[in-house]
UniProtKB/TrEMBL annotation:
<dbReference type="InterPro" id="IPR009078">
    <property type="entry name" value="Ferritin-like_SF"/>
</dbReference>
<dbReference type="InterPro" id="IPR011881">
    <property type="entry name" value="PaaA"/>
</dbReference>
<dbReference type="GO" id="GO:0097266">
    <property type="term" value="F:phenylacetyl-CoA 1,2-epoxidase activity"/>
</dbReference>
<dbReference type="InterPro" id="IPR012347">
    <property type="entry name" value="Ferritin-like"/>
</dbReference>
<dbReference type="InterPro" id="IPR052703">
    <property type="entry name" value="Aromatic_CoA_ox/epox"/>
</dbReference>
<feature type="compositionally biased region" description="Basic and acidic residues">
    <location>
        <begin position="14"/>
        <end position="29"/>
    </location>
</feature>
<dbReference type="InterPro" id="IPR007814">
    <property type="entry name" value="PaaA_PaaC"/>
</dbReference>
<dbReference type="Pfam" id="PF05138">
    <property type="entry name" value="PaaA_PaaC"/>
</dbReference>
<keyword id="KW-0560">Oxidoreductase</keyword>
<feature type="region of interest" description="Disordered">
    <location>
        <begin position="1"/>
        <end position="29"/>
    </location>
</feature>
<protein>
    <submittedName>
        <fullName>1,2-phenylacetyl-CoA epoxidase subunit A</fullName>
        <ecNumber>1.14.13.149</ecNumber>
    </submittedName>
</protein>
Length: 329
């Protein structure tokens, strides 16, 4: 369904005069901060935009398990292994809440997964980058989950009820993820000179990919204007990115690490940190499917899907048998 809807999705935001009575009533509900629920009437584009964003979000949670899962067997201590295992497991749960929330819009999880596997749906650009060593695992928890929280705290107020409620639960777990990451990187930054150098290298490599997570600058964002009018997004890409930079720079300084961008400077007038733009050509190339790990990430997901077919078949056969028995009684 999504694949067909997206082809017909309009661009540009309608003004009130261009809206039908139903659309105007819908917009009024949004403007009154009412939540939209699955059985309520909604414009087709609202539904398609949500399926796209929630589907991509779900895919990101599941693909996002790969770079960290890769380090579970090599965690430096039993405690770190237990923490990482719990975190990676949480990400599967986040994917599940989000696929389930997307299903309330009439799109099946199987269809969303198929579109991901065919490269027709995206997942977050950040998971195209490799985790080369243990410091990267700390930096991912701190910077990547830190960026995700900034976005997801805002999304708790999104206009679609099931998405907003999924976000409330996800944010609670996400705070633990970011804290465990900061704790891991803190131990390295305050450790031996070699450990500190590894922490610095991880921050240097992951900083720009992390700030790309918020999407292109507002002026280049295709969906922001309409998504903000419908309160699917409550803050713009640039607002969220600035919030992330403002909260993260003091954390880098506390660790005694060098700032990863020479453009970072406190701007007294704006009351915010200035910072350099990431390489947007690299970003657009990554989201076109040319990211350094994209082929591996998709292969791992497709293999996992195929290897798990017997589990799905078994569960379905059991469910069918049970419902036939119930019907016969
Ligand atoms: N990566 O119009 P725009 C996690 C695409 S998981 C890839 O601004 P929008 C974690 C965008 O789709 C957290 N593509 O888009 C998990 C559009 O292309 P299409 C993941 C991106 O949607 C495991 C085009 O660029 N969080 O943290 O209004 C372990 C134009 O962009 C990206 C979410 O998914 C990107 N970064 O705004 C550890 C949050 N950015 O679709 C950690 C939910 C943009 O037209 N999503 N694009 O072909 C959102 O809030 C919004 O979708 C975004 C982008 C702010 C990301």
């Amino acid at each position: 369904m999504y694949a067909q809807m997206i082809k017909t999705a309009r661009s540009g935001v309608k003004n009130r005069e261009e809206m039908s009575d139903q659309e105007r009533e819908f917009q009024d509900r949004i403007d009154r901060d009412e939540k939209i629920e699955p059985k309520d009437w909604m414009p087709d584009d609202y539904r398609a935009t949500l399926i796209r964003q929630m589907g991509q979000h779900a895919h990101s949670e599941v693909v996002g398990q790969l770079p960290e899962g890769n380090w579970i067997t090599r965690a430096p201590t039993l405690e770190r292994k237990a923490i990482l295992l719990a975190k990676v497991q949480d990400e599967a749960g986040h994917g599940l809440y989000l696929y389930s929330a997307a299903e309330t819009l009439g799109e099946s999880r199987d269809e969303l997964v198929r579109l991901l596997h065919e490269g027709r749906m995206k997942y977050s650009s950040i998971f195209n980058y490799p985790t080369l060593n243990w410091a990267d695992i700390g930096a991912v928890g701190w910077l990547v989950d830190g960026a995700a929280i900034v976005n997801q705290v805002a999304l708790q107020r999104t206009s679609y009820g099931p998405y907003s409620r999924a976000m409330i639960r996800i944010c609670k777990e996400e705070s633990f993820h970011a804290r465990q990451g900061y704790h891991a990187i803190m131990q390295m930054a305050f450790g031996t000179p070699a450990q500190k150098a590894m922490a610095q290298d991880a921050v240097n490599r992951l900083w720009f990919p992390a700030i790309m997570m918020f999407g292109p600058n507002d002026s280049e964002s295709t969906h922001s204007e309409q998504s903000m009018a419908w309160k699917i997004k409550v803050k713009s890409n640039d607002e969220l990115r600035q919030q992330f930079v403002d909260q993260t720079v003091p954390q880098i300084e506390y660790l005694g690490l060098d700032l990863p961008d020479p453009g970072i400077k406190w701007n007294e007038e704006r009351g915010h940190y200035d910072f350099s733009d990431p390489d947007w050509n690299e970003f657009f190339d990554v989201i076109k499917g040319n990211g350094p790990c994209n082929v591996d990430r998709l292969k791992d997901r497709v293999d996992a899907w195929e290897d798990g077919a017997w589990v799905r078949d078994g569960l379905l056969a059991h469910a069918r048998k049970k419902s036939a028995r119930t019907a016969a009684e």
